[in-house]
């Protein structure tokens, strides 16, 4: 990835910050989730991520080693990009942010690519783990917000955070997980950078000078800390999909909020198979 500043997140909805009354349990795919210490914290221009700062991060491993990033969303499923699905056996590593550190490894017994996936549209996939994950300080799921009242919340977030083990300024890949902050970019402005792509509600674009995702960051999350029911919680809003060849322009993420029906239905159906 390509960062140089400490992350401060602000979420604005109309004239107030996000706070929701009502049942919390029905608002998440998995609960508890997204509960990590909020600390000062490369991705291109990023910083090493502290060990307990991203316990939902997953490494998708192929036959040649590290393949893509992903996120743990339940005790059986990780979310990644559809273009990360490769021929051959895939495994998922959890509980380590250092590629060379000891981690828990899980076989993948089923893969589900979005039925409408086409190049850069609906670039999502779910990997089902062969056995359940036991949560710990270093392994726990990220939150997906199911509350329909906030289906467009991503449009009001000013700054996101993204993670990955991809290319940095000095290396084709990063041994340590990197994290950086990116600013929300209007889709109309993003479309000017990608005139040959269709940028729509299925996408979220984000950028910042001297910071960006790059080769190898695919499948990783776009996140934000939202005050929900009076608790600061980390939610996933996007999955890293594509960017410019030299990593110099905005990154385009698949919009998780626009694909919640598919994610939830697939998890609930396939989880019972």
UniProtKB/TrEMBL annotation:
It is found in: Secreted. GO terms for biological process: proteolysis. GO terms for cellular component: extracellular region. The keyword Signal applies. Residues 43-268 form the Peptidase S1 domain. InterPro entries: Peptidase_S1_PA, Peptidase_S1_PA_chymotrypsin, Peptidase_S1A, Ser/Thr_Proteases_Immune/Dev, Trypsin_dom, TRYPSIN_HIS, TRYPSIN_SER. Pfam families: Trypsin (PF00089). Keywords: Disulfide bond, Hydrolase, Protease, Secreted, Serine protease, Signal, Zymogen. Residues 1-22 form the signal peptide. The keyword Transcription regulation does not apply. Gene3D superfamilies: Trypsin-like serine proteases. GO terms for molecular function: serine-type endopeptidase activity. SUPFAM superfamilies: Trypsin-like serine proteases. Belongs to the peptidase S1 family. CLIP subfamily. PANTHER family: TRYPTASE-RELATED. This is GD25188. It comes from Drosophila simulans. The gene is Dsim\GD25188.
